[in-house]
Amino acid sequence: CPESSQCPEMFSDTVTARVAKASPLAAMPLSMGRHSEASDESIHRDMEVPAANVSLPHAPKPDMFVAVFSAKFKEARRHAARWAWHGARGVTVKFVMCKYPQDVLAITENEKYKDIAFIDCEEGYRSGLLTRKLAVTMDYYRTNYPTTPYFFKTDDDTFVRSNELLFELKLAKNPYIYAGLIYTHHNVPNRNPKSKWYQPSDVYPERYYPASAAGGPGYVLSKALVAQIFNNSLPDRYPLTNEDKAVGVWVNKVEETGLWVDKIKVKGTDGYRLNKCMTFVNRTWSEYDLVLHHKVHPKELLCMGRTWKPHDSLSQCFSCLD
């Protein structure tokens, strides 16, 4: 499992908050793909994914702005994600990439699809670069989608059941919402200077991080909560190395002002310890109840973009015999 998450449970653990449950809106435009233990870099290099003939959805008046974090050399993931997001309703989705280092191929790609937002930041992990990317993306959301109720950050290797997610968000009565795979156990900041997740104590001296949602699967912040985060200059005051832990700290600081934040635990997996072949064998799409599914390979996302009937087998896109 990644050092950043410090080996959390495979599925989101218990949180003292309203828990998102399956709703009648469970659609079936999803499936699984080949299970592999190879690294993301190897998969990207070796896997052929055809160019998509669809762009990410762009609703005229979206209920949710979706920021899909991507980076240089990830065009295979983006092509697959376009299919996975194809047909999503009520959302506007953008791949988010930093302008630096410049990616000429991605610029050309955007001329065709017009679904990449190049923002003023530098790609990377050390020294809080990823957190800086998030803060600039949130500001992009505030500027370009000021009336959109929800901001959702996710990764380009995550499958999202957006209808299900929106259904749960709209049940909340509180304007301050934080939703995702929320981990409540005590995560300890990494104090090893050699680690890419090194957290200097001068930026965050506390012994533990507060509850936070996993960054890969994604998390939702309501418009009102985003406004409070910026009104209190929290991204500038707490530029933590780890982007998802930074959000947890920002939300905690908002709560310390006396506001109550509704933390919604969404059903999903961070994917780091998920054996798909064992988990989904002999199950049908009607039994698939994950809303956020991280660590999905490009060919899996391509398969997820298809429309499946409720009684179709979950393993149709798997190859678990080799």
Automatic annotation (TrEMBL):
It is a single-pass type II membrane protein. It is an enzyme of class 2 (transferase). GO terms for molecular function: hexosyltransferase activity. Keywords: Glycosyltransferase, Golgi apparatus, Membrane, Signal-anchor, Transferase, Transmembrane, Transmembrane helix. Its EC number is 2.4.1.-. It is found in: Golgi apparatus membrane. Belongs to the glycosyltransferase 31 family. This is Hexosyltransferase. It comes from Alexandrium andersonii.
